[in-house]
Specification:
This protein has about 300 residues and is an alpha/beta fold. Helix content is about 35%, strand content about 20%. The protein has nine helices and nine strands. The strands form two sheets. The chain has a six-stranded mixed beta sheet with strand order 2-3-1-4-5-6, with helices on both faces. Strands 7-8-9 form a three-stranded mixed beta sheet.
Length: about 300
C-alpha cells in the first residue's frame, strides 16, 4: 500500500435509465448491478468496490430518483437522500441522448442541499454527435456549481479511466475498507435475487411492472457439487402470476435458464435453480411486507 493511500465513498445519482448500473458493471468488471431498459430497477444501495494500488473507491448506486408514488417509492427516495449526505463525492449522471428533463430539476434541488463535491457525468456519449455535447454542458453548468463535468460512455468505456483519475484527486486519504478482491458488500443471496429479478423484467417487458420482488429462500451444496438455489418471485396479482409461469411453465423455465447462467458466473459453480411464484396483494404499500422482503431503512 502506498504511503498516501486514498479511499472514499461515492454516490451515483440520476434519473431512472441514465446508465448507472451499466457504469457500475463497467468499473467493477463484474455483473453486480442489474440492467434493464425499464426505469427503477435498482432498489437497494448496491455497493461496488474498486481497488487499485493507491486507492479504493466504494460506489453506492442510489435508486433512480423520482417523486414517490407509493410507500416503496418513499423508501427509495429516502435512501437516496440519506446516502448523499454520507459520502465523499456525488456523481450526478445524465443521459446525453435525453438531455435535460423534468426529473433533473428535482435532483438538482436535492443536490443544492448537499455539502459534498458533485460531478456531472454525461453518459451515453456514444449515442450523440460530439457537437451536441457543448450545448448540453452549457445548459447544466449554470444549474449547479459542479466540481467538474465529464462526458463518458459506460457501455463503450470511453473516458471512464480519466473520470476515475479525476475522482481519485478529490478523495480523502484513508484506509482500505475492503479486501482488494472484494467487489461488493452485498451478500451473494441479495445479488442472486437481483439477477433473477433482472430476467423477470427483461422477459416479461410491459406485462409485469415493478410489482415484483424475489426472495432467495435457500442456497445449499448438493452431493454432485451443484449448488441448489431456491427462490420465490413475489407479485401482486394472480394474473401476473399466470404470465410469470407461462404456458406449461415456459416463461418460468426461460427466466430460470437465463438467471442460472448469470448465477453460475457469479458463484463460479454449477447451479440447480428452483423457482416458485407467489401472490402477495399490494405488497409495495405494506410496511411489514416491505420489511420482510428486505426493504429496510434503519435511519427512519
Amino acid at each position: 500500500m502506498t504511503e498516501h493511500y486514498k479511499s472514499g465513498f461515492i454516490a451515483i445519482i440520476g434519473r431512472p435509465n441514465v446508465g448507472k448500473s451499466t457504469f457500475m458493471n463497467r468499473v467493477i468488471g463484474q455483473k453486480i448491478a442489474i440492467m434493464s431498459d425499464k426505469p427503477q430497477t435498482t432498489r437497494n444501495k448496491i455497493q461496488g468496490v474498486l481497488t487499485d494500488k493507491d486507492a479504493q473507491f466504494i460506489f453506492i448506486d442510489t435508486p433512480g430518483i423520482h417523486k414517490p408514488k407509493h410507500r416503496l417509492g418513499d423508501f427509495m427516495v429516502q435512501i437516496a437522500e440519506n446516502t448523499l449526505n454520507e459520502v465523499d463525492a456525488v456523481l450526478f449522471m445524465i443521459n446525453a441522448k435525453e438531455g435535460y428533463g423534468k426529473g433533473d430539476q428535482y435532483i438538482l434541488e436535492l443536490l443544492n442541499r448537499v455539502k459534498r463535491p458533485v460531478f456531472l457525468i454525461i453518459n451515453k456519449i456514444d449515442l450523440v454527435h460530439p457537437d451536441e455535447l457543448l450545448p448540453l454542458i452549457e445548459q447544466y453548468k449554470d444549474k449547479h456549481s459542479f466540481e467538474e463535468i465529464i462526458p463518458i460512455s459506460a457501455l463503450e468505456g470511453n473516458n471512464v479511466g480519466h473520470m476515475l483519475q479525476v475522482l481519485k484527486k478529490h478523495m480523502p486519504e484513508g484506509p482500505q475498507f475492503y479486501p482488494e478482491d472484494q467487489v461488493t458488500d452485498h451478500p451473494e443471496r441479495f445479488i442472486i435475487g437481483e439477477l433473477i429479478r433482472e430476467k423477470v423484467l427483461q422477459l416479461t417487458k410491459e406485462e409485469i411492472p415493478h410489482s415484483v420482488a424475489v426472495i432467495v429462500e435457500n442456497i445449499q451444496e448438493r452431493e454432485n457439487e451443484k449448488l441448489l438455489v431456491q427462490a420465490t418471485i413475489i407479485t401482486e396479482r394472480s394474473t401476473q402470476k399466470g404470465i410469470l409461469i407461462g404456458k406449461q411453465g415456459s416463461m418460468l423455465k426461460n427466466i430460470g435458464r437465463k438467471a442460472r447462467a448469470d448465477i453460475e458466473a457469479l458463484l463460479g459453480s454449477k447451479v440447480y435453480l428452483e423457482l416458485w411464484v407467489k401472490v402477495q396483494k399490494d405488497w409495495r404499500n405494506k410496511q411489514s411486507q416491505l420489511y420482510q422482503l428486505g426493504f429496510r431503512n434503519d435511519e427512519y
